[in-house]
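Trying the structure run again after the queue cleared.
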Amino acid sequence: MLLLEGWLWLGGSLFGAIAWANIVWLVAQLYPQATGKSPKLCSLIIQLLRLVYYVGLPFSALLWGRDTLITRLFGLQPLALPPGEGEPSGPAVGLNWRDWAGDIGWAVLLAVLACGIMGVAWLTYRRMVGAYAAWPIKGSDSSTSLLLREAIYHEVHWAFYRHMPVVALGTYWGTWGGLGLVALEALLNPAWHSDLADPLRAPERLMRASMAVVSALLFLMTENLWLGILVHWLVSRALLALVRAFPGYSTDIHSATAS
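Done. Tokens:
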């Protein structure tokens, strides 16, 4: 029964996201002037809905889903604090700290590899489309706090999507199954297809897709959502610094092309 309820929560999230994305896309096509610039109140409502969907829904399943979510398989690894003075430490605290030390090691390794691979990819992409793309690309004006918010939203969302596959299939196959659900959600979102064809929007989408793979690999190594959020945020911040240092727009190339 609990397994069925977990799939119902997951299915509701997946099909709700697909329906919402397609409705928004259809409205944007029929009434482009209405979606060009959203009023401040409308933007606040959208952000509230995003908070409810990305964070509220998974934790509602965690708190009110009658043990639908298993905290450890969701990635909520606890941190055992040392006891107070005069209290025995016990082996559980030492084991927990050893686990965190190993997890941090994997997080650092994957963060460095992700920064290196995606950094090279950005420089290659910039060289390929620099003569055709105007500056700035989407997301290049993001603040550090906005990057943290998006890291939290996406990492919690991805953890929610892989939880039930992990319960049903085990950690290895369940992790990739959850990533497959994330890919399915993107595949059925018309905005993804449009953005990938736009040189100004494609880098952000490709970065997000790459971070989903990094998140899956980190979960396989650590099963630690907290470190997933941290790695996502730090890698996003490092890539943003690289994008700003080596923008896709080249004045010289555009001048030469125009002449």
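The first helix runs from residue 2 to 30. Worth checking whether this holds up in the mutant runs.
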